[in-house]
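[09:14] KT: can someone run the structure on this one? pasting the chain below
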Amino acid sequence: MKRLVGLCEALPVLLRAEVVSSQTRACGWKYGEAFSVARVQAAAVMVELSVSGTWSGLPKEIASDLLATAPTRQLTAGDTLFEAGDAGDGCYRLDRGLLKVALVSPQVREQIVAILTPGAIVGDLAMIDGLPRSASVVALTDCELRFLSRHAFEELARERPEIYRYLVKLLSARLRQADETIASMAFLPMKGRVARTLLTLAENVGEETNSDGILIPRMINQGDIAAMAGVARENTSRILSEWERRKLVTKSSGSYWIDKAKLEREIEGR
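[09:31] RB: done, structure tokens below
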């Protein structure tokens, strides 16, 4: 069991390192601006796969035990859950609302790199490996979460050591997903990446309209889309302008209306 616990504690570190090193190889950081965009892109993958995930692979009784006595926390839109660099003292389960995950670097302003929806577990790797938070998480809407402290997790793990077996499987699957995500970004062209970002946003925060399209609210701006897609802002602007001319995208009052079917064809290269 000690070897299993050690593996469980080592996998988060491996996940963080593999995501960054693989993204570095894929993007080739040669120039200042390319470095800036690539670093945000790498961080986006790391955020989605190491800052947040789900515990869908855990047996229901174990997941219930972990969260049974977890205190709730309420956030209003704009409240900060935690900031980059904060201690990884536990994790949260998002029960209601939407969270944004943001990063800041010397090269770029704050950028949204992920949108988290109900069911997401936020900060579980930091809870296991004890490393500081790698990004800031802020409420986009009013939210309700449950907090599982590192101490409570370790107490339950001592009573239910089989938890580590399931967590090793979950973390291994997340590491594999990281490689697959990085590979898809490395080979998907710029238009495909922007299209995929818009479709992901549409799925998470979009609203269906009477014109058979989907409206992405004004909380998401062009810079956020560029960061999430891992594409330079001027290239994103050019792509969106072209799509506006072709009626794939319409921008109005800061919101984006998209034609889902046409954007899906952009990803497929048709």
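[09:33] KT: thanks! The longest strand covers residues 90-96.
[09:34] RB: yep, looked fine to me
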